[in-house]
Each structure stands twice: as C-alpha cells, then as structure tokens.
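Key idea: predict the complex, not the pieces.
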Amino acid sequence: MAFIFKEIAHRTAAPVLVDEDKCIADKGCTVCVDVCPMDLLAIHPESNKAYMQFDECWYCMPCEKDCPTDAIQVNIPYLLK
Ligand code: SF4
Ligand code: SF4
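Result:
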C-alpha cells in the first residue's frame, strides 16, 4: 500500500503533465517533442500521446507555450517561481 501512495505522489509531482484527451500526437503533432531542448518528451508508442520520458525538466516552458491544444502543464517548483 505504501508503495502505491508513493507512486501516486511521484506521478502527481511530475514536472510536466500531458492531458491525453487534448493531446493530438495521434494525429501527427510532435511540437513539444521538437521544442524541448533536453529531449525529455516523447510520443508513447502505445497511447500515441506525448509523455515525459525523462524527469529532468529545465522549466524553460516552450513545450507548454507552443502546444497547439494547451495539453501540457509544466509545474514549476515553488522555489523557482
Ligand atoms: S505539442 Fe501538445 S498536442 Fe502536440 S504532441 Fe505535444 S502535448 Fe500533444
Ligand atoms: S519545460 Fe523545457 S525542459 Fe521541461 S519539458 Fe518543457 S521544453 Fe523540455
């Protein structure tokens, strides 16, 4: 049980969240993948939606700003705001 709570907490704390209902990667969009200077984002081979493959965000924001459907939310840590 503790593991489950830890896992949920970890996912909730992910710096970049993708709203899969809004993401149109399955229609060919790769904007966020292309603009991330760290190559942190990718299109998941099964869901065909964008996701954060590496958790090393620089909070530079182009993924959120350039997403045509507002599917991305970058959660900037309080200390960096
Ligand atoms: S830019 Fe937005 S719509 Fe396009 S793949 Fe990324 S999350 Fe999906
Ligand atoms: S905020 Fe910057 S580093 Fe983080 S996922 Fe978006 S483009 Fe990549």
